[in-house]
C-alpha cells in the first residue's frame, strides 16, 4: 500500500486531485478538503491522525501541507492545498482531528490563513495584539526590535 | 538615601564617643547577613534553567553559598536569576516580577540570552535583546550558553562581594 | 465584573474563582500560563496560554545555512539536545540522500539513547518533585544525570547543548576508554532504577496521587496525535524505533513497554521501563560498534537539491519531525519543526476538567512537556 | 497570692514586648520604596484577573472549623503531655475522656461527609 495507490483511490472519487511530480504529494483543491479528510478518515484507511500541519509561503500563493498517518496500514501521506494570497480561507478540520485545533491556530498566527468555523481562532505563539504575520516572506520586523539593539 | 539618617536617635549616636563605630559595625553586620543569604527567585525560562537546577542539585550545591532556597514568589526573594531567553510576550512579566520584589534586590543575568539575546540576536522578531533592554538594572552578568554551574556559583560569589562593598542603603 | 455562579447548593451559592498558574510557577516546567477556573477545589475550565518562550526559530532557519542551524536544534528540546540534532541531521541527509558510515550510525544510536536516559531521569525527578516527594527523587535523578553529562563532556566537551552531530557523521570520534565508562554507567544505572522503583512505584501516597488520575483514552490520544511515552501509556504499542526503524535500531533486541489505562501512574511506569530498555540498547550497541570513518571535516557548504522532506524520529517526549523545503540554495526555504510536546500539551485542558487543583500539577508533570520545543 | 499573678503579668508583658520589639526594629531598619506595581497583587507574573473578594465555596469554612477543633485539642495536649508523670493516673483518664469526645466529633464529621470534597 503506497502513497500512489492512495492517490489512485482518491482520484476516483475526487477527479480534480493531481499528484505533484517532485514531492509525490497529493495536491487538493481548497474547497474539497473536508470531503477528502472524511474519505481518508473512513474505516478502510483510518488515517485518523493528522501528524503535522504547516504552510509554505510561495509569494503568490500559500501552500498548506497536511501530513496524515494511519496506524492501521502504517503509511504516511502528504496532502497539499494551494491558497491564493488574496483569499486565504479554508475549512477547518477540527471535528475530524482534535490536534488540528492548535496546529491551525499556529498557522493562522504565523501565516494569516483563516480557518472557517474553528473553535477559537486567535494567536497562539505571539501576543494577541501582534501586528502582521511573522513567517511571511514579506514580513518586516516590528520597530521596537530595532530600537532594542542600542 | 541612607536609611540610617532616618532613625530618630541616629544623630544622638554620632555625638556619643565611638558612636560612629557602632553604626559602622551594625552596617557591616547587616551587609554580612544580607550577602550570605541571597534567596533566588525560581525563574527558569529556557536551557539555563536546567543548569540552574543542576547548580541547585547535590553535585554543585548552591546551598554552600546560602542561596539554595529557591523561593517561588518574588515577595520572599533577594536575587532574581534571569535564566534563559526573554521573549517579547514574557517581557512584561519579567518587569512586573522585578518590580514586585522587596527592596534590597539584585539581578543576575545568567547566559548569553539574558545578557544580550545571545544566538537569538539576529533575524528574530520576538526576542528581547537582553535584560537591560527591559530596563532592569543587572548586577552580575554570567556569559555562557548555557554557563556551567561553576560559572553560576562564581557569579554568586561576585554578587556577594558586591553586596559587601556597597554602602548600606536602600538599593 | 461578570459573575458566573457555579454551584447552587441548598442555601449558599458560590462563584467561580479564576487563578493564574502563570508563566512564573515552580511546577509548570518552564513558562506556561494556565488560566484555571475553579469551583472550590474542582477545576471547571482551564485555558492554556503558550508562546512565552517563542524565539522565532523557524524565521531564523530561513536565514541560516544547513550546518549553521544545528546549534539551534540543541535549544529546542534542551533536555534531549542530542536527539534533536539527530533528527535534523537525518532529515538533511535524507534530503541529499547521503550515505553515512556504519560507525557513525552506531555512535549516533549510543549517544541518542544515553540522552534519552538523561531526559527520562529529569522527567521522573521533576514529576516526583511536583507531586510532593520534595527533593529526594530530584537529587537522586540529577546525581545519575551528572554521570551521563560527564560522559558527554568527555565526548564533545559540553554539558547541555552539545552541537555534536554533523551532516554526514559526527563531530569527534568516541574517545578510547569511553566504553568502559559507559559499561560501568549501565551497571550503576540499573541498580539505581530499581531503587527508584522501590522508592516510588508502590508507595501508597504516590499511588494515591497518581492512580486513575488524568486518564487519556486511546481515541483521544490518537485524535490529539499524542506520541511517545504518553501514547504508549494509553495502550497503543507504537514506537518509531521499532515500527519504522531508522539508523541501526533494527539490529538490536529491545521491547516497547506499554501500559493499559493511560493514567498518570502508567506514564511514569512507561518512562521507567523505557529507561531500562535504552540501557539494553546501549549495551548491544557498544558491543557491536564497528571500526571506520565517522568524523566529518568541517567547512563544507551543503547545497541540497530542490525538494521537500519530512522525517520523524523517536524523541524522549514523542515524535520530533522536521519538514524541510529546500530550493537548491544553501539555506532552507522553509523549515517546520513538529514538536511532540506541542500536541502532548494540547490534550491538557481536556484532561484537567473536573479534577482537583492538586491533580492539575500531577497531570502536567506526567505529560512531561518542555516549553523550548512547544514555543520554538 | 497577688505575687503569683505578677509573674503571669510579667510573662505576658515580656511576650508582647518581644514581638513588638522585633516588629518595630525591622520597621525602622528596612528600606521603604513603595511603588504601584509593587503593591499590586502577585499573580505569577501576569496582571491580576478577577477579584479575590468573591463568594467562594462554603466547604472551605467547614474544613477550617474542623481544623480549629483539633488545633485547640493539641493546644491542651501539649502541657498535659509534658507534666504527665507528676499528674498521675487521674489526669491521664481525664485526658482520655477529652480525646474520646473529640474522636466522636471527628467520626460524626466523617460520616456526614464533611471531610471529602463533594
What does this structure look like?
The complex is a heterotetramer of chains A (150), B (171), C (376) and D (118). Chain A is built from 4 helices and 7 strands, in the order αββαββββαβα. Chain A is of the alpha/beta class. In chain A, the strands form 2 sheets. A 5-stranded mixed β-sheet of chain A has the order 1-2-5-4-3, with helices on one face. Chain A starts with a helix and ends with a helix. The mean pLDDT of chain A is 85. Chain B is an alpha/beta fold and 171 residues long. In chain B, strands 1-2-3-4 form a 4-stranded parallel β-sheet. Chain C has helices at 57-61, 70-74, 81-95, 102-131, 136-156, 178-201, 204-210, 218-223, 229-233, 240-243, 264-288, 340-346, 348-352, 357-367, 371-375, and strands spanning 5-8, 13-15, 17-21, 33-39, 42-49, 165-166, 169-170, 307-315, 318-326, 332-338. In chain C, helix 3 (81-95) runs antiparallel to helix 4, helix 4 packs antiparallel against helix 14 (357-367) and helix 5 runs antiparallel to helix 6. The radius of gyration of chain C is 22 Å and the shape is globular. Chain C starts with a strand and ends with a helix. The mean pLDDT of chain C is 91. The mean pLDDT of chain D is 87. With 118 residues, chain D is mainly alpha-helical. Chain D is flat, with a radius of gyration of 23 Å. Chain D has helices at 2-29, 36-39, 59-82, 84-87, 89-111. The B-C interface holds B 41-47, 49-51, 53-54, 57-59, 70, 72, 84-85, 87, 89-90, 93, 97, 119-120, 122-127, 145-146, 148 and C 22-26, 30-31, 51-56, 59-60, 62-64, 71-72, 74-75, 78-79, 122, 138-139, 142-143, 145-146, 149, 159-161, 371-372, 375.
Secondary structure tally, helices of chain C? 15
* Principal-axes shape call of chain D: flat
Termini of chain C, distance in Å? 36 Å
| pLDDT < 50 stretches of chain C | none
Q: Quote the beta fraction of chain C.
A: 5-15%
User: Which spans of chain D of ≥5 residues are poorly predicted at pLDDT below 50?
Assistant: none
Radius of gyration of chain D: 23 Å
Record field, number of beta strands of chain C = 10
Give the overall pLDDT of chain D as a whole number.
87
What structural category arises from helix and sheet content of chain C? alpha+beta
Oligomer: heterotetramer
Report the helical percentage of chain D: over 70%
Give the termini distance of chain D in whole angstroms: 55 Å
The most extensive contact between chains is: B-C, 35 and 38 residues
Mean pLDDT of chain C: 91
Please name the defining characteristics of this protein.
heterotetramer; A: 150 residues; alpha/beta; 5-stranded mixed β-sheet; two-stranded parallel sheet; 4 helices; 7 strands; globular; B: 171 residues; 4-stranded parallel β-sheet; elongated
